[in-house]
Amino acid sequence: MAVVTYLEAIRQGLWEEMERDPAVFVMGEDVGVYGGAFKVTEGFINRFGPERVVDTPISEMAIASAAYGASLTGMRPVGEFQFMDFITSAHSQIVQILAKSNWRWGAPAPMVLRGPTGGGVSGGPFHSQNNEMAYVHTPGLKVICPATARDAKGLIKSAVRDNNPVLFFEHKYLYRRIKEELPEEEYTIPIGKARVHRQGKHVSVITYAATVYVAQEAAELLAKEGIEVEILDLRTLLPLDRDAIRETVEKTNRVIVLHEDTKTGGIAGEIAAIINEEAFDFLDAPIVRVTSLDSAVPFSPPLEKAFMPQVEDVVRAARRLVAY
Amino acid sequence: MAVVTYLEAIRQGLWEEMERDPAVFVMGEDVGVYGGAFKVTEGFINRFGPERVVDTPISEMAIASAAYGASLTGMRPVGEFQFMDFITSAHSQIVQILAKSNWRWGAPAPMVLRGPTGGGVSGGPFHSQNNEMAYVHTPGLKVICPATARDAKGLIKSAVRDNNPVLFFEHKYLYRRIKEELPEEEYTIPIGKARVHRQGKHVSVITYAATVYVAQEAAELLAKEGIEVEILDLRTLLPLDRDAIRETVEKTNRVIVLHEDTKTGGIAGEIAAIINEEAFDFLDAPIVRVTSLDSAVPFSPPLEKAFMPQVEDVVRAARRLVAY
Amino acid sequence: MSTKSLTAPEKNAAAPIGVSPHGIPDWRLEQIPFHIESEWVNGEFGYKIVGETDTPVPPLRPSKYLDKEKSIEIYRLMLVNRRMEESLERMYKQSKVIGGLYLSLGQEACSVASAFALGKDDWLGPMIRNQGSMIVKGFQPRDTMMQYMGKAGSPTRGRESGSHYGDHRVHNVIAPISHLGDSISVLAGCCLGARLQGRNIAALGYIGDGGQSTGPTYEGFNFAAVKKLGVILLVEHNQWAYSTPVEMQFACKDLADRALGYGVPGVILDGTDANQVYDATYEAVQRAYAGEGASFIEAKLMRMKGHAMHDPANYVPAAVKEYWKRRDPILRYENYLKAQGWINDDELKAISDGVNTWMDAERDFAEASPMPDPADAATDVYKEDGPIALKYGPVVVHEANQRAQLKESSAPGHYK
Amino acid sequence: MSTKSLTAPEKNAAAPIGVSPHGIPDWRLEQIPFHIESEWVNGEFGYKIVGETDTPVPPLRPSKYLDKEKSIEIYRLMLVNRRMEESLERMYKQSKVIGGLYLSLGQEACSVASAFALGKDDWLGPMIRNQGSMIVKGFQPRDTMMQYMGKAGSPTRGRESGSHYGDHRVHNVIAPISHLGDSISVLAGCCLGARLQGRNIAALGYIGDGGQSTGPTYEGFNFAAVKKLGVILLVEHNQWAYSTPVEMQFACKDLADRALGYGVPGVILDGTDANQVYDATYEAVQRAYAGEGASFIEAKLMRMKGHAMHDPANYVPAAVKEYWKRRDPILRYENYLKAQGWINDDELKAISDGVNTWMDAERDFAEASPMPDPADAATDVYKEDGPIALKYGPVVVHEANQRAQLKESSAPGHYK
Ligand SMILES: Cc1ncc(C[n+]2csc(CCOP(=O)(O)OP(=O)(O)O)c2C)c(N)n1
Ligand SMILES: Cc1ncc(C[n+]2csc(CCOP(=O)(O)OP(=O)(O)O)c2C)c(N)n1
Ligand SMILES: [Mg+2]
Ligand SMILES: [Mg+2]
């Protein structure tokens, strides 16, 4: 077993899928000779040629829709957005064309749109966004936000094999900060299944992507106070794993929903509603949201830190819940 | 006092604002000679001229952003989308340029983008959408969805006077179906304030726009069984009136959130989270969501009816809650 | 980049080859002798004509490629297009149509003759009015009729209305979406997918004088042009976008001027002349097959009805309608076939009767068919797991370096 | 629509007036004698040059409009642009810059001379590299420096980085957003707002050879063209968009070909020649003031650094960099000023010293200034109530019918 970064895990997953299935190809801005802004497809063009590693004009609408068009012929395109901040440029195509295709006219769209998401790197308001929620609210899509290298690889492979348009958000803060040993043999991770990142019994933190590690740090601090935190890493945001959410609530009876996305209209609301529906009687305290503030993502480090949810915020919330 | 439709109320509000303040002007596709697809600006060009009633090419991105540009010079543009389904075409401009403007560089954008929204008229998947939620999740915007003629007029006037980008969703099902007497004298309705549409004490239905009338029908049926339903019409979705939400929950202890938008990621989740935060201890039963199904909006009447929340759904949910 | 242009016919042409001010071939035998301006009249703002409208109607331009049989078949299909829409109009007035009804009166030549130039494996990206093109591609009138009535048996099972349907398996038709211009990138993608499978195909996309103003149109067609994909953009310049005259939609004279900026061959033609439409599309299709890439066709014609049935189009000056009425594509084609000596009145009547009988049967079938089951409203939002076949055969493996291995990424990339 | 084109200078011109293949004025005194193609070399896919790169460097083209004083001021401002970026580069290497750093080496003439042609009330819509333009519009080097360092005193109070700042009150600069092309409609809106207040203003927007591929660019500039708004679209064709050569971005030869499709005058020029840049922008500004509408300028030049500091631009063949290095805009302008007899070495040194001293002071100020207070992260998301002033004076009331009354809407509209 080799130690592999989150970034390399995604690269391996894509490469393996392209080796396995010639119908898989990648397209996007600067994905060819340059290998992509974050080097996810570095070297791919030398192996798969410019036919299957397609550099595009700066045209997110065209990337999303041409990928879709190719998928109508049975290809399995993987489109890259240089930053997931630019997914908004193709928003209309994603929600109107792609998401409705199978429902409207029975035309499946086996395709992936992927790219770097999230903050914490002083990217400023246009290179740090968490834009997943608009798509969680769009029936017909699948939305994946992995937190670990293992999941990133297994889920990108599942995304490529899925017969629906899958949006794959890669947290850029994790790209080179997260490493772990990965199995030598091939594996996939199923879409739609959450993962218990840490077992605990007093408070559940339901979260995903980079804030899994915020929760983890908080859990380590809280453990010293005897508060055992369970961390549920959602991994897939659409479809959500309702069973896993119910199970952790039934176990701990106290819930923090933690996300880097902004609060109002963020996925914490959806999870609150699901908990109400699935496990209301198990709740011993109100569900607490720990999220970014309701503004754009600031550039300057002191501002960005104040904006994003911090370990202390989780610690405080957990103490409050346990004392409720 | 004259009886006025929801449509005429909006027309009056816009006309009055254009009379009052020459900085107000309208722009959009077919708004001039034709008076707009739904005739909201019919006759406006004859009064205010083509300078202030601006027909545009079919370019939603340009409409939203040029309106914004004009607002930077102190104008108060009101952009029309022919259907709010086409707001997705300008999604990127709205969330990236408009919403962040005051926060990013202190440039306020006093402007309105308005248009017909919602289903129930066999408009099919591209003329029936409820696209408000992506904007409720965007700090910097205000989002208004009126249900009554009185509110529609008072709120469009407040929207025009607001110093921020306001999205104004006019439910097309209500345009000519809803009428009421309006005051002769000028009035406005404040943004951010919900309205108790009907007093009750057993169950609260929190809703907005066309489903206010679904709730009302349900309330009338339930009244015969002795179940007194309180209907809270949110009117503004961003900012939400947290006080009004808390108050109705404290009063009835049982909540249905009803909306025509689809379920997963819809505003019911946000409201569930707010109730958890504001009034958890007052809840005697889980919050129930009654919404459209998670798909696009079907065209054919039997399908559309099955898709949209119906009076019976509310009645059933209320009975279940009272029995909880 | 190929410099080969869409050519004008060398033989049979009824008039000399024209060229637009920017050097684009203009095949028309007449220019539109008027344009629209706005004016105030008694405190009302509206549109007026500047120029003449009573110029004589030229003959059609004989086709370089169509023989007698194909010409007659195009005629028949135009008639099918028109009769189907006449049926629909009656059904609308009988309240059998649900929602809006969009008609293409005056545009039948443009729909039919262009789609007729496509091969079986080529794709079509229709707009709402191209109901005739869909028949050429293999759908039945009942399909469109059932769509408008929201019937269970319609291609979208009642989910969508009108021409918002398609088929990716056999007919290769993209189901249009309302957001104008969005199909163009999709067609480019179809061509890209086919090319990866070793096939240069053509994909014909329509867009209106209004719809071509949208960003997706631009991104999609630029993408097709730079990638040399066989997209044929047929701009149906029918003078109006809903109530908006073209004078308020763009500032260039000919929309084909935009071909220069895309870097692809362009041509201007008379969209009421099926021969011009066919020939231009045919040449563009051949370019696509030869791997030479995208083409741009501007067809000038007129939307003879309102935007949809609810719109009486009072904003259109009456003389404009009269001018174009004299240029009815079907009547002119009938005269052309007769002048060619290819058909007589009896044969014309037989065609007409055949179309009428068929149309009545289609309407009866559509009317009698059931409405959908409410339980079907929100099914099939997702496609289940399972293999999806490649449409054009196995993916071609190119000269790329088969032995290259995945190496660890070198540079830190954009942000550390 | 006005047919008046951006003219080439009649007097003083060093060479005859050129015209592009599509009839667009081309002011350059040389054409770029090579282009980029892709190739496989030992199993690696990359780019190569086709054509020559060692052609002689022509002189600058004397300006039709700039006098000695203005020319020297443009020179000084270009030097400010370069020195500021050199300072930033040092600060970056000292890890004083946060995040990425974007430089405009080789593009100073294009930024500075164009912005120099604007009047005080005109708007500027910069892109990330137009840091020099912002100085011309009245910002200080410290502003950009503090932006890059995330300082509290930066124009955006640390919220944004680099040239992502602006000012709608005095300098009339749109704060750029990353999404390429999005400023163009905004500038059109500024012109529309001004026109409603009785003023024909100009609004200069930059866009790259890459950014101009986006839908918002197209919608925005079409809107400006059809509404005859004074938007000047200056396409900085600097050969690369990040790592993508222009050959993979569009299929037309000159981006100015797109002017024909927009229906506005276009011109092609050498973006390393401040005189050509100034003259074209000046003429476009005059057109805007005269109410004649939008203009399109294509400036060909080269991005001499990587996309941002993290990018060594290894994908650019070395000889391309050499070719353009010989065309350094500042060195050439220096030689031009000397050849004109407008400046001597002592005066040049005095200018340089002055700029250096200022730049050091600016850097010291920027470095010493404090970081923002965390409490400021999410304030001012909304603008409070209160009057917002009209920028250009009262709205002009036109001939519209003052007595018209609101009548009840007649028709049922689109859906009942
Ligand atoms: C992006 C977008 N904006 C607005 C509309 C509403 N709309 C539907 S058709 C139409 C006019 C289309 O005109 P044109 O493209 O010229 O086609 P025509 O109806 O003349 O065939 C408009 C504005 C739309 N469908 N899509
Ligand atoms: C809509 C959008 N997509 C992608 C990007 C990422 N991006 C930033 S700059 C750039 C290249 C821009 O090239 P060009 O427009 O030629 O400007 P230059 O950098 O050469 O000055 C890209 C792809 C973006 N900013 N906006
Ligand atoms: Mg049209
Ligand atoms: Mg560039």
In short:
Chain A is an alpha/beta fold and 324 residues long.
Element layout with pairings:
The complex is a heterotetramer, with 2 copies of chain A (about 325 residues) and 2 copies of chain C (about 425 residues).
Chain A (H helix, E strand, L loop, with lengths): L1 E4 H15 L3 E5 L15 H9 E3 L4 H13 L3 E5 L10 H8 L2 H5 L5 E7 L15 H4 L5 E3 L4 H13 L3 E7 L7 E4 L12 E4 L4 E5 L3 H14 L4 E5 L2 E3 L3 H11 L2 E8 L4 H13 L8 E5 L8 H7 L3 H12 L2
Parallel strand pairs in A: 2-3, 2-4, 4-5, 5-7, 6-7, 10-11, 10-13, 13-14
Antiparallel strand pairs in A: 1-8, 6-12, 9-11
Chain C lengths: L17 E2 L5 E2 L7 E8 L2 E8 L16 H26 L14 H8 L7 E3 L5 H6 L4 H9 L32 H15 L6 E6 L6 H12 L4 E7 L2 E2 L2 E2 L11 H6 L3 E5 L3 H16 L5 E6 L17 H8 L3 H11 L5 H24 L48
Parallel strand pairs in C: 5-6, 6-7, 7-11, 10-11
Antiparallel strand pairs in C: 1-2, 3-4, 8-9
The complex binds thiamine diphosphate (TPP) (2 copies) and magnesium ion (MG) (2 copies).
One magnesium ion binds next to β8 of chain D.
Discrete helix count of chain C: 11
pLDDT < 50 stretches of chain C: 1-5, 8-16
Q: Could you say how many structural domains of chain A there are in total? A: 2
Biggest protein-protein interface?
Answer: A-C, 72 and 71 residues
Give unreliable regions of chain A as ranges.
none
Strand order of the largest sheet of chain A: 3-2-4-5-7-6-12
* Overall strand count of chain A: 14
- Report the sheet-strand fraction of chain C: 5-15%
Radius of gyration of chain C: 23 Å
Cα distance spanning the termini of chain C = 39 Å
What's the number of helices of chain A?
A: 12
Mean pLDDT of chain C: 94
**Proportion of β residues of chain A?**
15-25%
User: Roughly what is the average pLDDT of chain A, rounded to an integer?
Assistant: 98
Order of helices and strands of chain C: EEEEHHEHHHEHEEEHEHEHHH
Helix/strand structural class of chain A: alpha/beta
Rg for CA atoms of chain A: 19 Å
